[in-house]
Structures are given as structure tokens and as C-alpha cells.
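TASK: fixed-backbone design
INPUT:
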């Protein structure tokens, strides 16, 4: 939380085709209560907004949208690594962390507690090369609280930053670097690519998160100087999007931001785009299982000529399963595990990147030759009209989905404001793509994506080479005199948090259900507004149904569904989904399999038809089975390179016990994958994929009559083949005493932890008490465990607990990564917090905060069609009644300190907790012994090691 160190700038990459995309009746000006802020103006897509600038230079953009009783607060400070001084890489990102460490009127740790207590969602911060972003979404009656918090962050944070706060956040950020770069596959590869692209001194050369040496070397005086220059009213923009009265919002913004003092004019950043005239090649070894090829070019800056053309080119080359490189390298030649292509658009210059993860044994040289062939073909021959149409359709959907959620809508507006100088730029942006011709795309590829203008990075398995270790100095325990200063005058009235307005009634998306004659349950939640629809066919055919001798079969069956039906090939399915601009995926979980569709309302009929075809008529063709085997074997190898995944896999094996269906890796084993054939796949599908064993969940802009008219012809004739298998409940998890397991990962910079135990099933009477109790223990950013291990000790970037409650399975888990040298200390602290949770009831303030964090955030948790579908699909899979979601407010509201304590004592037993630690055993075993934990060493398959 409070970081997004290397996140590439997410933004629109192709055209929204306007014709038919929006309801004709959407107004371009003031909207009725339930309509979104999106409409059309002058024939173009438009976002209704109002922009004003206060006398001190602070910018405010209002986007009024009354669909839900929510307001998104999106504050951009126009400073990022592009503004960092030499030798201070990671400064902007570290400053982002410091913004949450407390301000003059909001003591350290209280900021997030206020957000939790108000029912906030989407609360975080992020940094990219060009800006730093601070955001949360609150119920609309907390408008004034949100403005009070944001103003204090911007205006009075520097008052409370001292050497103690700085040292703590330096630890946290360095833990984030270890987790996000050094202990993540290919993390150092991406960093090496940017260092090869950009010369010394260029602000984009280093990763956003910076180096250990630079992070540790930042001084308090540097922090103050950065604040004086960049964190001023005249260098920030706030977007409010959602349910508010504009007149009231303007008055409150003036009240809270109007007295902030502007700073000096921000220094202008002028950096020429670097020019590469000869191909640069480098080899990077990393602790990875699969080799990877990266090709990267400097390309035009965001919104400059050529930027849109390269967005389209990226889609044509690698924009999904229908793209050229996916078809060639993954489907046809089976040389690649995955292909990603993107135009990462930034203000000073952009980067076009092709990334191909190779299958085991595949040659990167051969892959590179094939990629070069496709690049040459695209440079010489324009893309087809069908390819152009697919790109436009895809982005049509992506854009509207981004506008569906007020948090992402606010961020989109802020992005246009900074990058284009116009918060309403969406129509002009999309017009760029509408005007593109295939010939223009081809010509742009020929100009910019030349072999002698690129960087080639070959990532290969081997030793990870990191810079020399930078010591973590002892953290100061007390600030020295004179460390604090103020940029803005003290205003005593700000010392008290404002009260809330009268809340609107708490309502959640309702759903209705009907059953087809064949037994298929249909659950429907109508959501008017944007013309979007999401659907999920949920089948009780998850990992728990795997035969004992065929682990991974449920996942294999689900993965095969998009790979061909009796009337469509895998390529035809991919092209059909791309033509609709829709997403269509299938996967299996522990208890269920799901086929998911999301797209425009106009594509709902064809999208549901595709979904039905996948579920009812899978081909299980021999060539696709063999290709899927190779895909899954490679994915199995990849789990060994990702410490958190490995920790979870071993934890499941140890806690469920050998022979339990959920003990095995969800992918299966090498032997079980190789043994799969069409007979096994079809037999599982015939037994499990049956209408009486399934539910179709649909949310979006469809009425019940419209949905019935679509569903009956598609699913009404579905009949299960043969007799349904007798119901066989999952065996219980093996009861086991506490146990400590180490999986050796020599040289790992962090330890990935999975601390697990059997847990309650869904539907237990005290489920709400459990969730509120867990929110206090480890479920929230402000929880006891995360606060102690991250904010107080600086051991981790984040560590969280949770209960997974299914129909026939339940598990409690604490998961996260900690610095290697403090693994033992972190576990000791974790146990203290667990014991404390069981020792006595929560105080009134803590109970109120964590209970409200569950209760008042409910509308924000169901703010998109995908979220609504996910909620009702999970509800059905867990065997809960349709009304369980609507009943949540009453259940959360009834939780007391006594009932939460009872839940902790009943469902949180330290004597049953199993610790799995993936890290360097030479460093871990002495620490574990020192805290009284005798550890056994297992391999990646859960087998004993010496």
C-alpha cells in the first residue's frame, strides 16, 4: 500500500468507436440522479466536468456523478522521478510514503484509520515517472472529512516529518524494492532495460523506486527542499468525482485549500529524447525458470505524433490471444509461454516494449527472429481493417469500464489534465485513433521500430547479480531539536476532524433469481448507467472435485474451454471476442470453475453466445491438449520462481495433508499433466458441467425480460450427459499441531511467509464477527500485525491476514514478505498480536473503526458490474442464499467487542498454525531456533530435504 513503484503509466491505447456505444439519451449537461458523468457532446464522447483554479494556484476539477453515494478524491502532485536531482533516485516515491506518515493535524497512523472508520475504499498512493497520486473513495456524506484529510496531507505533512519518520519509511521502501524487484522474477531485468535505454542523468533511467543506496542516502534536508519546491498549492490538482453538490464542494475546497501558500514556480524539465543509433544488447541472469526476451525502443511522447499509431501497433502485435505474436509464438510454434506488447506513454518520451517469456528449451534467438519477421511484415504491409476494428472495439470497452468506477474515472480526468492540459481531452484523444489509417500505423512502425534503434535484453536463469548490500543503520528513536518546520501557517480550527453529513441509506445491489427448466440457476442484478454487462457461468467443478489420481484435472478442463469448441477453433474464439472488444476467460478455483465475460451491452448477445459455446460444446482437440500441457508444465515451473506462490503451495500441501484434493498444486504435478488425455477431460466435463450444477450470474444494463430472451435460447436446451455423480463432500483438512517449515531459496533478499490453519466454512453464524475481528488483527492496512511489522518496525512492505470461507473448505492465513534478517523477530511479533487478539476485547474506538471499515465500505465494494458478479457468483458457489449480500449490513452492525473476542478464541488457535517460510535457510534456521521454533526443511514439492 501507499506505493506503486514501477507501475507503467496506464492509459488509453486505442480508439473508442462512438457509434452505438452510448445510450442516445445520455445528456451532455446536467444529469438526472442516477446517470453517470459520461455522455456525448458535439458527436464525441465527453465527461461532464468543471475546472477552476484558486487564487493560490490550486486546481480543482469537479465530475458530478450520482450513480452511487460515493465520492472519489484523486490528488495529483505534478512531481515524479522526472523532477528528481542527480543521486536521488526513488525520491518522489519515498516522498509518497512520507505523505501518509502523519501531518500537523492528523497524527501518525491516524490518516488511514480515519479512512477505514469512514468506510473508505481504494485508498492508496502511486508514483510514476511524471506524477505522484494520492487517492481514496469515501461515502458521499464524508465529503468534508475527505477534503480535511487531503488538505492536511498537502499543506501540513512536512510539519511532522522528522528523522524517525524518514528512517521508518526508508526501511519500508527498501522492503518494497526487495519484494517488487529483487524477489520478483524479471524485476532486475526490467530495471536493466531502462538503464540501457536511458543515459546517466536522464530522469527515466532508474526505476521509479530507486536504488538502495539512493533511498538510504536521502536526508531530512532533502525532504524539506522537495516539499518547498513541489508540494505546494500551485503544483497540485484535486479531482472530485461522484455524488456531491458542486456548490458545497467548491465552498469546502476553498475552506480547506484556499489558505495554502503557493511555492516558487516549479522548475521546467526539458530533456531531449535519447537517440539510439546502434542496437544495444545485454544478458541479465536472474533466479528464474524461464528465459525472456525484451525488445525496447524510444518512441514519441504521450499525445505526440506517432503515439496513437504505436498504440494500435501494440494491439496488433500482442494485444491478446487474437494478436499476431500470440498466434505465432504461443499457439502455432509453441515457443512462448506469454507475449506482451505495449506503448508506455510518458511526458518526456515513451517506450515501446515487446516481452516474450520462452517455453522451457525454446531458443531466444529463434523467438527474436520470428518477432523481427512480424515487425518487418507490419512495417511493410498495413494491418487489416479487421485488426484495426479489433483494437478499436477492445478500447471502446476498456474506456467505458474505466469510467464505470468513480475512482478510475477521477484518475483518468487527472491524467488528461496533466498530460494534455485539458481534463476534457477524452474526445480529442479518441479522435486521434478514429483518424488513423492502416497505412499510417505501418509507416510509424517502419520509422520508429528499427533494429538499430533498440535495446535487446536476454533474461536467462542463473545467479542474480545485485549491487553491494547497503546496510540498514539503526533507526533513531527520537527526533532531534529543530528537525521540523512549516510551510503553511498554523490554523487551530483544523485540529478537529469535521463531522459527517447525514448519511444516505445503505443500499447494496439487489439481485433476482430464476431457474430454467433444466435446473440452471440464473442470478440477475440490473445496473443502469453505462451500457456495460458482465456475466459469469459458475460450475461446481473446482479443484476439490479432482480425482485422487489426477490432480489439476479441474483446472486443465477449464483452461481447455476457450481452446476450441465443436464449431470454433481457438483462434476463431479469440478473434470473435476481440471483435466484440470483450474479455472471455475460464479458470477453476478450489470449489468452482468460472467462465467470465465482460463487454458492452451491445455485445451481450454475442458474448453470452460465445460463453455458452465454450461451456456446452468443448472440443478437447488433441493438438490443443498437447499445447495446453506444455503451457501448464511451464506454469508449474514458474511457481517455483515466485516465493509467495511457492509458500502458498507448500502451505496447502502441509495443512491439508497428502491425498486431500486441495493439498496438490492447482496445476497438478508434472506426471498428472503429462497423463491427461481427451478421455479424462471429457469425462470430468460430462460429470461436472451440468445445468443443475451451475449458475449464470449477470450484472449490468440489462432488464430481466432482456436477459431471459438471451438466456433461454442459449442455455435452455443444455442437458447433462449421463447420470450425475453422487455428491461426495470434501474430506476435512488434516488436524495437525503447530509446525514450522522452511523451503530453501539461497540468497533470497526476503522471506515469503504463509502462516495457515484450517478455518470455518461459509455460512457459520459468526462469520461477520470473524471478519470484523480479522480486520483488526491483519485484514486492514491499519491492522495490528501490519502496523507493528511495517509502520513500527519497518520489517515489511505489507503483511495481511484473512479467512477463506467456502462451501466445503475454510482456511485462515497470514501472508506477506519480510526482510530476511528479521524473519524470526517478525514471527515473534506476529504471535504477540495473535495472543493479544485472543486475550481481551477490543476497545470501543478500535471496534468502531474496524466494524465501520467492513460495514460502511460495502457500497464501494460493489461499484462495478465485475464486482457485483463476483460477489453473487462467490455467494452461490459457497452455498449461501441469494439474500446473504443484502443481509451484510445488519450482520456487521450487530458485531460487538464480546462477539469478536469469542470469534478470535474459537477460530484463531495459535496451537494449530503452520508456518511456511520460503527464503535462505542458512539465515532462517538460526533465527527460528532462537525463538523456539524447530523447523523442518522441505523442497518445492513438500518433500523432506536434508
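OUTPUT:
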Amino acid at each position: 500500500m501507499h506505493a506503486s513503484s514501477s507501475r507503467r503509466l496506464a492509459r488509453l491505447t486505442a480508439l473508442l468507436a462512438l457509434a452505438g456505444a452510448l445510450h442516445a439519451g445520455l445528456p451532455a449537461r446536467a444529469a438526472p440522479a442516477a446517470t453517470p458523468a459520461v455522455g456525448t457532446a458535439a458527436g464525441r464522447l465527453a465527461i461532464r466536468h468543471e475546472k477552476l483554479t484558486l487564487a493560490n494556484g490550486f486546481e480543482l476539477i469537479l465530475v458530478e456523478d450520482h450513480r452511487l453515494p460515493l465520492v472519489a478524491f484523486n490528488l495529483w502532485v505534478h512531481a515524479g522521478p522526472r523532477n528528481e536531482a542527480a543521486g536521488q533516485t526513488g525520491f518522489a516515491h519515498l516522498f509518497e510514503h512520507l505523505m501518509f506518515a502523519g501531518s500537523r493535524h492528523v497524527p501518525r497512523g491516524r490518516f488511514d484509520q480515519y479512512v477505514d472508520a469512514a468506510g473508505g475504499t481504494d485508498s492508496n498512493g502511486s508514483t510514476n515517472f511524471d506524477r505522484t497520486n494520492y487517492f481514496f473513495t469515501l461515502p458521499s456524506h464524508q465529503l468534508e472529512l475527505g477534503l480535511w484529510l487531503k488538505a492536511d496531507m498537502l499543506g501540513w505533512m512536512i510539519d511532522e516529518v522528522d528523522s524517525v519518520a524518514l528512517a521508518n519509511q526508508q526501511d519500508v521502501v527498501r522492503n518494497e524494492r526487495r519484494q517488487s524487484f529483487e524477489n520478483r522474477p524479471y524485476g532486475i531485468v526490467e530495471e536493466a532495460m531502462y538503464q540501457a535505454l536511458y543515459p546517466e542523468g536522464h530522469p527515466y533511467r532508474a526505476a521509479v523506486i530507486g536504488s538502495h543506496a539512493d533511498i538510504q542516502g536521502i536526508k531530512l534536508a532533502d525532504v524539506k527542499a522537495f516539499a518547498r519546491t513541489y508540494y505546494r498549492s500551485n503544483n497540485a490538482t484535486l479531482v472530485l468525482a461522484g455524488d456531491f453538490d458542486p456548490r458545497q464542494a467548491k465552498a469546502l475546497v476553498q475552506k480547506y485549500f484556499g489558505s495554502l501558500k503557493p511555492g516558487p514556480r516549479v522548475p521546467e524539465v526539458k530533456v531531449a529524447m535519447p537517440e539510439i543509433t546502434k542496437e544495444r544488447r545485454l544478458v541479465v541472469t536472474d533466479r528464474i525458470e524461464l528465459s525472456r526476451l525484451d525488445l525496447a525502443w524510444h518512441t514519441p511522447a504521450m499525445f505526440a505524433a506517432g503515439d496513437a499509431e504505436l498504440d494500435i501497433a501494440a494491439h496488433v502485435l500482442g494485444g491478446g490471444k487474437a494478436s499476431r505474436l500470440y498466434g505465432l509464438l504461443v499457439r502455432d510454434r509453441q515457443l512462448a509461454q506469454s507475449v506482451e506488447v505495449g506503448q508506455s506513454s510518458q511526458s518526456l518520451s515513451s517506450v515501446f516494449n515487446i516481452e516474450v517469456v520462452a517455453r522451457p528449451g525454446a531458443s531466444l534467438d529463434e523467438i527474436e527472429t520470428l518477432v523481427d519477421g512480424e515487425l518487418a511484415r507490419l512495417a511493410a504491409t498495413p494491418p487489416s481493417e479487421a485488426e484495426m476494428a479489433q483494437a478499436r472495439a477492445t478500447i471502446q470497452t476498456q474506456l467505458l469500464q474505466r469510467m464505470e468506477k468513480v475512482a478510475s474515472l477521477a484518475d483518468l480526468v487527472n491524467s488528461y489534465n496533466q498530460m494534455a492540459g485539458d481534463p476534457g481531452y477524452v474526445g480529442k484523444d479518441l479522435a486521434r485513433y478514429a483518424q488513423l489509417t492502416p497505412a499510417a500505423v505501418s509507416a510509424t512502425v517502419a520509422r520508429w521500430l528499427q533494429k538499430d534503434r533498440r535495446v535487446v535484453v536476454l533474461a536467462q536463469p542463473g545467479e542474480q547479480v545485485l549491487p553491494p548490500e547497503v546496510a540498514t543503520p539503526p533507526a533513531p528513536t527520537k527526533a532531534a531539536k529543530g528537525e521540523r518546520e512549516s510551510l503553511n501557517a498554523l490554523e487551530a480550527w483544523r485540529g478537529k476532524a469535521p463531522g459527517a453529513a447525514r448519511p444516505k441509506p445503505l443500499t447494496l445491489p439487489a439481485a433476482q433469481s430464476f431457474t430454467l427448466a433444466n435446473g440452471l440457476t440464473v442470478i440477475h442484478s440490473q445496473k443502469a448507467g453505462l451500457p456495460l454487462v458482465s456475466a459469469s457461468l459458475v460450475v461446481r467443478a473446482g479443484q476439490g472435485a479432482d480425482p485422487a489420481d489426477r490432480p489439476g484435472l479441474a483446472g486443465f478442463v477449464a483452461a481447455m474451454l476457450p481452446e476450441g469448441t465443436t464449431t470454433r477453433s481457438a483462434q476463431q474464439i479469440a478473434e470473435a471476442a476481440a471483435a466484440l472488444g470483450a474479455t472471455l476467460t475460464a479458470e477453476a478455483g478450489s470449489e468452482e470453475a468460472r467462465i467470465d465475460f465482460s463487454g458492452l451491452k451491445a455485445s451481450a448477445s454475442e458474448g453470452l453466445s460465445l460463453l455458452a459455446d465454450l461451456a456446452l460444446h468443448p472440443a478437447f482437440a488433441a493438438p490443443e491438449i498437447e499445447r495446453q500441457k506444455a503451457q501448464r508444465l511451464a506454469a508449474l515451473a514458474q511457481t517455483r520462481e515466485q516465493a509467495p506462490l511457492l509458500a502458498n503451495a507448500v502451505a496447502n500441501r502441509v495443512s491439508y495433508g497428502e491425498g486431500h484434493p486441495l493439498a496438490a498444486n492447482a496445476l497438478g504435478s508434472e506426471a498428472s499433466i503429462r497423463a491427461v488425455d481427451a478421455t479424462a477431460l471429457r469425462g470430468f466435463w460430462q460429470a461436472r458441467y451440468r445445468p443443475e450444477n451451475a449458475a449464470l450470474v449477470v450484472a449490468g444494463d440489462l432488464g430481466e425480460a432482456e436477459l431471459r430472451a438471451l438466456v433461454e435460447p442459449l442455455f435452455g436446451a443444455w442437458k447433462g450427459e449421463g447420470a450425475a455423480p453422487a455428491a461426495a463432500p470434501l474430506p476435512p483438512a488434516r488436524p495437525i499441531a503447530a509446525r514450522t517449515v522452511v523451503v530453501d531459496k539461497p540468497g533470497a533478499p526476503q522471506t515469503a511467509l504463509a502462516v495457515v490453519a484450517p478455518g470455518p466454512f461459509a455460512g457459520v453464524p459468526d462469520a461477520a464477527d470473524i471478519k470484523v475481528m480479522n480486520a483488526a488483527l491483519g485484514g486492514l492496512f491499519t491492522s495490528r500485525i501490519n502496523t507493528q511489522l511495517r509502520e513500527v518496525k519497518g520489517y515489511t512492505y505489507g503483511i495481511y491476514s484473512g479467512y477463506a470461507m467456502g462451501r466445503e473448505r475454510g482456511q485462515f492465513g497470514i501472508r506477506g514478505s519480510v526482510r530476511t534478517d528479521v524473519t524470526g523477530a517478525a514471527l515473534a511479533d506476529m504471535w504477540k498480536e495473535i495472543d493479544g487478539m485472543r486475550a481481551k476485547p477490543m476497545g470501543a474506538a478500535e471496534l468502531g473503526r474496524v466494524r465501520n471499515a467492513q460495514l460502511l465500505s460495502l457500497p464501494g465494494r460493489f461499484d462495478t458490474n465485475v464486482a457485483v458478479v463476483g460477489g453473487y457468483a462467490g455467494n452461490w458457489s459457497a452455498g449461501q442464499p441469494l439474500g446473504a449480500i443484502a443481509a451484510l449490513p445488519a450482520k456487521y452492525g450487530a458485531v460487538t467487542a464480546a462477539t469478536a473476542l469469542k470469534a478470535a478464541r474459537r477460530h484463531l488457535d495459535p496451537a494449530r498454525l503452520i508456518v511456511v517460510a520460503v527464503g535462505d535457510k542458512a539465515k532462517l534456521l538460526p533465527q527460528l531456533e532462537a525463538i523456539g521454533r524447530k523447523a523442518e526443511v522441505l523442497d518445492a514439492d513438500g518433500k523432506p530435504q536434508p
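COMMENT: The mean pLDDT is 92.
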